[in-house]
Amino acid sequence: MSTNSERVLPGTGLGAAGARAWPLRDSAHTRALEGSHPAGTGNRSLMEFAGLALARLALAVVPHARTIWVACGPGNNGGDGLEAAAHLQQWGKQVVVSLAHDPEKSSTDAHAAWLKARAAGVSFNDHPPEAFDACLDALFGIGALRPLQGAYADWVACMNAASTPTIAVDLPSGLDADTGAAMPMHVTAQHTLSLLTLKPGLFTGGGRDACGDIWFNDLGVQDSSPPQALLAGPVAITRRLHASHKGTFGDVCIVGGAPGMTGAALLAARSALHGGAGRVFVCPLGAPELTLDPQCPELMFRSFDDLDWSAMTLVAGCGGGQAIAESLPLILGHAKQLVLDADALNHIAHSPVLQQQLAQRPAGHTVITPHPLEAARLLATTAAVVQADRLGAAQSLAERFQCVVVLKGSGTVIAAPGDIPRINPTGNAKLATAGTGDVLAGLVGAHLAAGRPAMQAACEAVYRHGQAADQWQGTVLSASQLCHRT
Ligand SMILES: NC(=O)C1=CN([C@@H]2O[C@H](COP(=O)(O)OP(=O)(O)OC[C@H]3O[C@@H](n4cnc5c(N)ncnc54)[C@H](O)[C@@H]3O)[C@@H](O)[C@H]2O)[C@@H](O)CC1
Ligand SMILES: [K+]
């Protein structure tokens, strides 16, 4: 095995350069994998490999650190920290370890690591050193069970307040490995080294903000079993045939824009056009007099009742307000390919009849793009419940409504019935502004119109949408600027 770890993603706001499709595995699978390799590879335990990989990463990312504080918890996460502490001390660092448990009661491996750290000359102190150049958060990994209290909470506060970097062992303490839900008290690290498996919780919910740069070391254990989720990889550039015409890339029709919300429909339409659709029609429900978008004269304006949209990809919602409600039965019943966003989803959430219509649409032709509150309305729950398990919520929606679901937010989740959910690695907080959701809906429409299967269309559009924000140099990105970049 290599003790060099691989960087999977840089911290938030730094783009997803170099990202590729990684398998993500939950803690139950990780424990089963650990159980099938109790002795690691060769004659070293997995913990010994983990400790060496951690110490090497620390040397690589904080090479000039002299004093390193290692905060160790009572389980094997703490054992990893003790192994790393022994190496770093032997390599000339001044290592201070804090423990709040009796090491005589640790697991066999963690006890052996404690003896090694003592033999190496590591200092032990039950409170953090007055000054330290870097810290290893080895408090809790996949075994964190309850909110952190007492000394553990104090140590987390100390790490988070320090101006020096924290490297989280396996995952930041207080973050749920499977869901990315962060406890009120959790570590905010600059680097996280995920061990043995890459956990889904690092990439969604509170994960990205808590982890910083995400690194991975498989500890020499190869795992070819199906993952519980996938990190979505970059979009392949598709070659457009020379012998193409505007019909080749499909027609998109945007239905939305209730009075005062015409801009939402225009944003979706411009985005579909710049996203590669052959022709884009707009049905602005609140502004029938509108016949031209001067900034995008390619768009064609029609009344919804007069347009033959039966062979088009429809994008419905986009500032549709109350006006979209009366068209939804027709749209759900007859649209060939369909993207449902915002107000369309809110109306569906309130109507069992529309819900049934949605679930009965032909498989593989519908994408819904809810944010957490819209997802909560559809699931008859709260946004907090959705955010506590974003993967689970997206998969439930996909199964219940038999469609592809794009659950927006930090680490957008894309789920389809019977498929492995994807977590998107691109995007940043510049997207947290009005209209970016309309841009995404239009872009999904363009990818569907180009003939992509619904899951692929959704994954590609979400990746490109986030990538455009990652590549944007300014600090503020408006939705209309975003339209042109995707
Ligand atoms: N699973 C694996 O394959 C491997 C695991 N390793 C490490 O071991 C970790 C998992 O070890 P464990 O299962 O021992 O779990 P943890 O080390 O995450 O913690 C579990 C221990 O903490 C206690 N605990 C949980 N929440 C607490 C709280 N709020 N306050 C006080 N005590 C609390 C539990 O009672 C238990 O004793 C991984 O995250 C990883 O760092 C590595 O050694 C290598 C391989
Ligand atoms: K940790």
Automatic annotation (TrEMBL):
AMP binds at K408, G409, S410, G411, T412, G437. Keywords: ATP-binding, Isomerase, Lyase, Metal-binding, Multifunctional enzyme, NAD, NADP, Nucleotide-binding, Potassium. GO terms for biological process: metabolite repair; nicotinamide nucleotide metabolic process. The gene is nnrE. It catalyses: (6R)-NADPHX = (6S)-NADPHX; (6S)-NADHX + ADP = AMP + phosphate + NADH + H(+); (6S)-NADPHX + ADP = AMP + phosphate + NADPH + H(+); (6R)-NADHX = (6S)-NADHX. Its EC number is 4.2.1.136, 5.1.99.6. (6S)-NADPHX binds at residues 76-80, 141-147, 152, 170, 264, 319, 371, 438. K(+) binds at N77, D137, S173. Catalyzes the epimerization of the S- and R-forms of NAD(P)HX, a damaged form of NAD(P)H that is a result of enzymatic or heat-dependent hydration. This is a prerequisite for the S-specific NAD(P)H-hydrate dehydratase to allow the repair of both epimers of NAD(P)HX. Bifunctional enzyme that catalyzes the epimerization of the S- and R-forms of NAD(P)HX and the dehydration of the S-form of NAD(P)HX at the expense of ADP, which is converted to AMP. This allows the repair of both epimers of NAD(P)HX, a damaged form of NAD(P)H that is a result of enzymatic or heat-dependent hydration. InterPro entries: Carbohydrate_kinase_pred_CS (IPR017953), CARKD (IPR000631), Nnr (IPR030677), Ribokinase-like (IPR029056), YjeF_N_dom (IPR004443), YjeF_N_dom_sf (IPR036652). GO terms for molecular function: ADP-dependent NAD(P)H-hydrate dehydratase activity; ATP binding; metal ion binding; NAD(P)HX epimerase activity. Residues 24-227 form the YjeF N-terminal domain. Pfam families: Carb_kinase, YjeF_N. Residues 229-486 form the YjeF C-terminal domain. This is Bifunctional NAD(P)H-hydrate repair enzyme. Coiled coil: none annotated. Belongs to the NnrE/AIBP family. Belongs to the NnrD/CARKD family. Its cofactor is K(+); Mg(2+). Homotetramer.
